[in-house]
Amino acid sequence: MPVINRIADFTDDMTAWRRHLHMHPEIQFDCHETAGFVVERLREFGVDEIHEGIAQSGVVAIINGKTEGPTIGLRADMDALPMAEETGLDYASTVSGKMHACGHDGHTTMLLGAARYLAETRNFAGRVALIFQPAEEGGGGAEVMVQEGVLDRFDIKEVYALHNLPGAPVGSFHTTAGPIMAAVDTFHIHITGKGGHGAFPHETADPIVAAVGMVNAIQTIVSRNHKSAQELVVSVTQIHTGSADNIIPEKAYINGTVRTFDGSVQDMVRSRLEAIVAGHAAAYDVQATLEYEVGYPATVNDAGKTAFAVDVASEITDAVDDAYPPEMGAEDFSYMLNARPGSYLFVGNGDTAGLHHPAYDFDDAAAPAGASFFARLVERALPAA
Known about the structure:
Structural class: alpha/beta
CATH architecture of the largest domain: 3-Layer(aba) Sandwich
Number of helices: 11
CATH class of the largest domain: Alpha Beta
Number of strands: 16
């Protein structure tokens, strides 16, 4: 079974919705206009319940099936990124410094497409909870929604989400059982020495050489402190210090990211960072502090729900990969999967610019496939009598 015919019928509508959202991006928890657009469409579709203001601007809508039964949650993220768009498209962002560079406009559209179909047909037993979430790109909107009791309040038994995948054929599906995206942590190192004239370094405690030493040592965490079979990324992404060629500064700052799948590896990295910072501070006679921020946990797919999702995707297309290699990127849908069984899948976006690139754009041809997947998943998981 390919894309559902009825969903194909409103492909043009989905394209219009998505391009409207693309022109009006919002970031973090401030997705009120986006949520308003979503609510307008949901009311047009005739869904049974609409709950607004969750996690500030999130929306949960309920569609009841033909008979009573369990509730499945389907999630789409709504927020954009704080970056300038460089696509030159007619429907490019109209908001300076904000852009849908990760395809959340497409994710929202796919869920709206499924909502319209499911509200029309209701060919299932039970309920569907449509979760439109803010603040995936930092802020952990999914965690906030879980903390505010969304899963318990609506008695959601399992959860699913889609994310577009540049470089994969349009409408193809990719996933894997177990870990699929990494946990993400952030570290900040603040170094304070004694500044002075560049011509008299012996009178200073140079924070620059201490910072360079720390950065070099941090690189050995991956190469010398962990098993090569375990996935790990430790990247230094910022170093800030100095103001002139003849001044040794007093302060330096180092920032970076840690990506892991295993809690013991995460603990090891944190311990090594603490030792490196303390050791180099003593060696270079400076003061240094480490701030280690634990971020999104790893996104881990339930094996049974993923096998089911793969089976459903195979009804939409033959292009289904159930052994997609785990990525070192992170995703806050992990909080929902920590609380309920479910699965996270990628849907192909074609030969486009990569995610978070100023030339990226969601391929509208992928929307009917994603909407069809969501709809068929509900009909298969909650078959009508």
